[in-house]
TrEMBL record, chains A, B:
GO terms for cellular component: cytoplasm. Its EC number is 2.5.1.10. CDD domains: Trans_IPPS_HT. It comes from the Bacteria. Keywords: Isoprene biosynthesis, Magnesium, Metal-binding, Transferase. This is Farnesyl diphosphate synthase. GO terms for biological process: terpenoid biosynthetic process. It is an enzyme of class 2 (transferase). NCBIfam families: FPPsyn. InterPro entries: Isoprenoid_synthase_dom_sf, Polyprenyl_synt, Polyprenyl_synt_CS, Prenyl_diphosphate_synthase. Belongs to the FPP/GGPP synthase family. It comes from Cohnella luojiensis.
Amino acid sequence: MDYSLLAGGKRLRPIMVLAAAEAVTDNEDISARAVNFACAVEMIHTYSLIHDDLPAMDNDDYRRGRLTNHKMFGDAMAILAGDGLLTHAFHVATQAAKNGVPAERVLAVVEELSMYAGLPGMVGGQVDDMLGEQGVTSLEQLVHIHVHKTSDLIACSLRAGGHAAEADYKQLTAFGLFGRNVGLAFQIQDDILDLTGTEEKLGKPVKSDERQEKVTYPFLLGLDESRKRVAELTKEANEALLQAGLKTPDRLIEIADYLLNRDH
Amino acid sequence: MDYSLLAGGKRLRPIMVLAAAEAVTDNEDISARAVNFACAVEMIHTYSLIHDDLPAMDNDDYRRGRLTNHKMFGDAMAILAGDGLLTHAFHVATQAAKNGVPAERVLAVVEELSMYAGLPGMVGGQVDDMLGEQGVTSLEQLVHIHVHKTSDLIACSLRAGGHAAEADYKQLTAFGLFGRNVGLAFQIQDDILDLTGTEEKLGKPVKSDERQEKVTYPFLLGLDESRKRVAELTKEANEALLQAGLKTPDRLIEIADYLLNRDH
């Protein structure tokens, strides 16, 4: 569990939790209140990477610049490390109640985590991805898979930060939309980088999508149109945020800009 | 997820949830309040069976009289079905708040589920079991593994039923003890039945422990001493229950007696 959780990575999801909470309120304690949810989403993200990397799934040997969990510890321990991280994520989330988050808000976050990470979300997205590997032909199908595989947990992270700061309905909805778009832009950018990046910067072999004959955005739309899509999605995401009556949406918008321009 | 969840089985854990709730109060609505937790623990139990049966783990072909999940749907789908059930268990548990269970009690159940099912509980027990397969030599080690692999979720089920009925601290503690002992007795009985039962009654091949050279209670203690252990543990469990000031502990005691005398 530690090996994969502490392997680095962008920490995008926990940053989203904290940035969303800080966008709602300038209360100085807000990070301490939101930090449990930040840890929970990173644990869920890490569990999903460990299981996705297994030989039965994507069969990847490297992740974040080092051997994948099952390459280090064997398939059984990797399955259990994922199970342990997923379960522990819910534990860590409940502890927010001891850091000043009202019980109803903590319950709302647990409920949302279990949906966005579960069959209606990430798990369903991964199932569709596995089943569709031979047959994805339309942009619509690809968007559907990525909304669930990637966007859902990002949207959930933002909403969790919102709940920690007791955001209102309008703000939570804007966080959901922002997360959906940024998550999709992030995934398209990932596909682009797999084609155009270097192994040194990415910490994993490039052009793996091509080798595995995966249907990606650049494959369906071409590189230029894919890049345009990233810019449009980011613009829409920022607009949703600016109309939600947030105190300080700046940092979230910075993150979206960073995702648009990253090279790893 | 449906294939394994609806495959039958004894439904011991959900029955424990409902029986514990009914032991605390004679409120007629109590089953409706406790039923979410009953579903949650069965989902967690089923996920653990699906993952334990995988080729990377115990590599079992049959479960509850039919092909195991990965034999039907492949390893990837079995991993995802387990992930989906584990995640959905937490979702179902949160919905108890909509059936009249106070938010603090629902949170307590989510917190306990995440511990008893996680690294300090079932996942840790399975890890120790896998790591110990070559080297378990003492009864102490075997008890440690089974307390976590089996007892923890049973204890958690009883405590969840208790929380649904707003049990007091003393009652929750008695449920925990009862669950620990009954779970251990249940596991010893499983080992005994693997040696003495028939494939027809068990719905799975017998003597699989011997074939896999597993260290079991009958292996360490002999059949007679193992049977005596089951009786002692059940007696202790019943005594703990009778001293907790419960309204109607009868059904729980009936369940313990059933476990002691079952042949499948």
